[in-house]
Amino acid sequence: MIKAYFAKMAGKGQSAPLTPPAEIYWSWLGSFLGISAVAGLHYFWAAPQDLVMIIGSFGASAVLVYGAISSPLAQPRNLIGGHFLSALVGVACFQFFGDMPVLAGALAVSLAIVLMQLTITLHPPGGATALIAVIGSDNLHNLGYFYALIPALSGALVMLVVALLVNNLAPTRKYPMYWL
């Protein structure tokens, strides 16, 4: 039984093929423009001295929506719903269990995963969005549930608009694969 358990970790398949140069270019362009747009919007509109409005989980979203555009995890429903719902969960966990950050963080991520699975909005960076709501700065905590709107939802929407524009410029790309 133990041997069978560890045998599952051996891996059997081939590694992923090398990404063609054109795909690498479009992934770079989309991620550069997407993150620049989110950071620029939040810098000029909200917080020039503290980029609290651009959260680290957007970096992981950029990998998906510009680099793995056919993945179910990169589709608009997942991008938007994953960040928004996870932000709500993260804020709630901080508000109820903020004095116990280990518990609050663990609950935020695990409950965000459950909610994303139940709503068919699984987006791995959403787990980070939930965790950031717990471990973030006082400036971020002061946003309360507004964190779900700005930066989580607004940043995801900006990245989606850039993904729609850039990913469809390339003749070999089509984004999204589906909306809902």
UniProtKB/TrEMBL annotation:
The keyword Repeat does not apply. InterPro entries: HPP (IPR007065), TM_HPP (IPR058581). It comes from the Bacteria. Keywords: Membrane, Transmembrane, Transmembrane helix. The chain crosses the membrane at residues 25-44, 51-73, 79-97, 104-124, 144-166. Residues 19-176 form the HPP transmembrane region domain. The keyword Amino-acid biosynthesis does not apply. PANTHER family: TRANSMEMBRANE PROTEIN DDB_G0269096-RELATED. This is HPP transmembrane region domain-containing protein. It comes from Candidatus Lambdaproteobacteria bacterium RIFOXYD2_FULL_50_16.
